[in-house]
Amino acid sequence: MELNQWVDELFEVFDEDKDGVINRSEFVELIDCLLQDKGIRMCESIFKRFDKNHDNSISKEELREMVIELAL
User: Fold this and answer.
1) Is the pLDDT of residue 34 over 70?
2) PROSITE patterns of this UniProt entry (predicted)?
């Protein structure tokens, strides 16, 4: 599966309220899924790091950057 397609699917799954961004609680679920055993302890710092515009949500582009940096 291509990276962009994977990110699109991740975004669709974790944007539970379908508002076009991943809010903080949705992000916690996403990180829990991606990091599994590393736990939620890293969530706050990761969220702050990738919420580039500090709007307290993760856009699809911000998620793409996070996936590229953390998962690949």
Assistant:
1) yes
2) EF_HAND_1 (PS00018), EF_HAND_2 (PS50222)
